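Issue 218. Parser rejects a valid record. Input:
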Amino acid sequence: MPAADQVLLHSVTMWLLLQSLLLASCLHLAATFPKGCYPSEEEGLKTFRCSNAQLTEVPRDIPNDTNKLYLDSNRIPFLPHDAFRDLPLLLELDLSHNSIASVESGAFRGLAEHLHSLDLSSNRLVSISKDAFSNLKAKVNLSNNPWLCDCRLQELIRAVDLVVGSSSGIVCHSSVQEEHVGKAFLQVMADTDFCNVYKKTTDIAMLVTMFGWFAMVISYLVYYVRQNQEDARRHLEYLKSLPSKQRRSEESSTISTVV
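Output the parser choked on:
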């Protein structure tokens, strides 16, 4: 075989081998990702999309150099602690339109340095501790959730940086005060300090409890005194029925005891 043909054959063989390796690599990567999830690059940022992938939990095999993560429109019910700890370069996190009803403390641990956008809108959030967002500097969207308007939500709203325009979507689905149901929480907060109301309610409950105990103590003392007086009266009547000499002796003893 001429040398030129050998070189050509060798080149074709190497090219086919390289293509096979690339295809195998792609197939391997695809096999490790959950069905419906795929990596891409958008505007120079490494993106991982799992939108509408029927997920019931946060995937574990997300590339750790991901900048934008889309987990929207799934069925994720809660966020455990350290759910995103292996994503130190994450800038945007979209968790909207899921079934999230619980966010554990530390769920966003490791994201404080870089994350600048967090979308939790259109979930099933009723109440979250502000500690779940500790040290987080991202703009947060909490709209369209069935919020319980109370002191806990007030503390949360004051602790996070809300996405501009999203506050009107934080509406009281239920409230410690019935007249607030259906109203935007920030509008209600303008007139009501939920934490102060809670503190007053707690103070009143403590005062009522203390008054109850005090009343019980007083009632017992009154009963005790009356009971002793009744016993003393009966004893005096008994002494009166005794012979004169013995009666005077025991009567004086009884009176001194009572005094």
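Fixed in the parser; the record now loads. Confidence is low (pLDDT under 50) at residues 20-31, 198-205.
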